[in-house]
Amino acid sequence: MPVLAALPPVSATQLPEARDDDPDPVVVYLVRHAEKADDGTDDPPLTLAGQIRVRVLRQLLSDAGLTHVYTTDWKRTRDTARPFAEALGVEATIYDPRQLEHLAATIRATPGTHFVSGHSNTTPVLVAALGGNPFDPIDELEYDRLYIVVIHPGQPPVTTLLRFGEPYVEGSDFGLRAERGSVRPPSSRRRN
User: Fold this and answer.
1) Distances 57 to 33, 38, 144 between C-alpha atoms, Å
2) What is the pLDDT along the chain (192 residues), one digit of tens a residue?
3) Residue 61 in contact with residue 114, Cβ under 8 Å?
4) To which CATH superfamily is domain 22-163 assigned?
5) How many other C-beta atoms are found inside a 10 Å radius of the C-beta of residue 183?
6) Global pTM?
7) How far apart are CA 146 and CA 141, in angstroms?
């Protein structure tokens, strides 16, 4: 028996009343960049697995109605955001990962549906700055998180955490997440 079938039905009197003059919520989709190569530089591109993950994400969000795209100025984040910006016919907005409160304020004040490509150490912080729940920290090899933060004016934000593409298994890279031999122990580098 499906879990939802065991729940009592919701009556129309239990639902919040929608009014025509209610503003639309701000909806924000946030991801860490897809799998990065280990090319010996500080600014590596995506691996083949990362490119495939971006295609899966693009398909998943094809009907999301995105209106704004944000990325940090690193190859891996730009390459993760690029298909979304191209679909909208716009340039992605580059944001400073050290100014997440500013970005959160900009997003909260901008009606629409936003896509943000960030890093393992900045994406949860931005979710929290938007008023959402970041859940646990993102692991070094974890690339399958998709946060959705819905911000209704005058109400607490609602956070949904989904998984997409190849599933993350703690401590395992399946030989697909990075180039062979490139898996390194987590470092103290700022942008993962």
Assistant:
1) 11, 22, 9
2) 233 333 344 333 444 454 556 689 999 999 999 999 989 999 999 999 999 999 999 999 999 999 999 999 999 999 999 999 999 999 999 999 999 999 999 999 999 999 999 999 999 999 999 999 999 999 988 999 999 999 999 999 999 999 999 888 776 655 444 443 343 433 444 455
3) no
4) Phosphoglycerate mutase-like (3.40.50.1240)
5) 15
6) 0.80
7) 15
